[in-house]
């Protein structure tokens, strides 16, 4: 399994990592904060213009001063509008760009984690991380970080102005917030726990939705659609219940702060009345103070809300942080050996392997494969046949022993050199929801249309492709759902032919096909295998009878090996497997030289 990074975890560490994606846009981010501060300065200036209007212009009936203040107020509001508009446009652009960078970097890291990660994680979980968690990070880029910086600077300036205007009235703010913090931390803690629970329930629900969509065929075939709907309904109820609790606590916190804010306003009116009566302040000063106090308290409540909501977002983003800081199971060699022209000779030297937390699968495989030799791997299920192929392509590394390619240990070869020389044909071929042409060209993106057609002809696929509605430009649908199993396999073989690898790994490439499709694919395979080192996990005798060597695995070791005729004459485990299949009546029978019939191996 993949290893966790030793980096410290926590919201602050996660926050530093997220904000680090804004570094390429720090100029734009500084402009965003400046625009926000200018707009806020305009808001702070307006109350003092109103104070002058009340204390001087109106009592003195100064018409010139009145129009000057009105014009100045108009200019202030225009400045606020222009700064807010510029700020919003820049915020959207920067947050979208930073989120795109984060998503791209996450995708690159997913590629580094390799095959082992995908075997251990549901696809729905990964999709949730790539979508919802990146959206949470985008909210930090767009709203929380610039707002918190701007609000902190704004509140500092506003507090200085309030103290300058009236230190006595400013003291009323202290008991209001002291009262809130008798209850607030408990509410904030409850809100954070509910935020985490809501994020987890949403991820679980997303995974279930993906399962329902991807498994729609099986649910319908088994008549289990209502069962699946019930499971979705149960999870949806959990999401709804958690979300409603989260909304209630959030509104209650906001309402409590609002109530204390109103209490403070009443106290300011009472104390302000006496200060005016005692001539300690003018009516205009009191109105200006009251307006600034309202702005200050609103922004202070907003800042607290931003901190709490940002903390919720960070809890979601922390899952993305953990993913990006998960260390790959396999590392690219720092100084890979130059391998030159790959011949395809493979050596297994006492190779052992066990999946994490499971019993050993391979218990000491030693095998020399010559360049261009065709090897078939057979044996009962669970004996490590497919695992052997994964080790050759470095999906995993052996837990003991070593595999060498042309005499060089696989861990010393770069991934590009190794996997560029290997063609892997799976039992379940993955085709992209694109055209036939692009699916074949996937093996070599630089291939011309003529090379695509030539590969299709060599794979015995050209005839059926030309009979499709749009020929090579026919869209095959998601995972190639518009094509039969045999057609998909022949396109996969054409893809390998155009890649022209030196080594071929075939993982039961014909086991799911009917007899007619198997014959067509077998003919295509003859073209593909010519002159290439081949290791095939064999399911049917028809696919291994003419191989150079057959290797029988049993108990994680090589029980016997030899040509087809040699193994049948030896009447060992290979012969028993064939005879056992015949007795069970499975599969298609084939003549066994000197021994009647044999049938497909499983």
Automatic annotation (TrEMBL):
<feature type="domain" description="ABC transmembrane type-1">
    <location>
        <begin position="30"/>
        <end position="312"/>
    </location>
</feature>
<feature type="transmembrane region" description="Helical">
    <location>
        <begin position="167"/>
        <end position="183"/>
    </location>
</feature>
<dbReference type="InterPro" id="IPR003593">
    <property type="entry name" value="AAA+_ATPase"/>
</dbReference>
<feature type="domain" description="ABC transporter">
    <location>
        <begin position="346"/>
        <end position="580"/>
    </location>
</feature>
<dbReference type="Pfam" id="PF00664">
    <property type="entry name" value="ABC_membrane"/>
</dbReference>
<keyword id="KW-0472">Membrane</keyword>
<dbReference type="InterPro" id="IPR039421">
    <property type="entry name" value="Type_1_exporter"/>
</dbReference>
<dbReference type="InterPro" id="IPR017871">
    <property type="entry name" value="ABC_transporter-like_CS"/>
</dbReference>
<dbReference type="GO" id="GO:0005524">
    <property type="term" value="F:ATP binding"/>
</dbReference>
<protein>
    <submittedName>
        <fullName>ABC transporter ATP-binding protein/permease</fullName>
    </submittedName>
</protein>
<dbReference type="InterPro" id="IPR003439">
    <property type="entry name" value="ABC_transporter-like_ATP-bd"/>
</dbReference>
<keyword id="KW-0067">ATP-binding</keyword>
<dbReference type="InterPro" id="IPR011527">
    <property type="entry name" value="ABC1_TM_dom"/>
</dbReference>
<keyword id="KW-0547">Nucleotide-binding</keyword>
<dbReference type="InterPro" id="IPR036640">
    <property type="entry name" value="ABC1_TM_sf"/>
</dbReference>
<dbReference type="Pfam" id="PF00005">
    <property type="entry name" value="ABC_tran"/>
</dbReference>
<dbReference type="InterPro" id="IPR027417">
    <property type="entry name" value="P-loop_NTPase"/>
</dbReference>
<feature type="transmembrane region" description="Helical">
    <location>
        <begin position="282"/>
        <end position="304"/>
    </location>
</feature>
<keyword id="KW-0812">Transmembrane</keyword>
<feature type="transmembrane region" description="Helical">
    <location>
        <begin position="65"/>
        <end position="85"/>
    </location>
</feature>
<feature type="transmembrane region" description="Helical">
    <location>
        <begin position="259"/>
        <end position="276"/>
    </location>
</feature>
<keyword id="KW-1133">Transmembrane helix</keyword>
<feature type="transmembrane region" description="Helical">
    <location>
        <begin position="29"/>
        <end position="50"/>
    </location>
</feature>
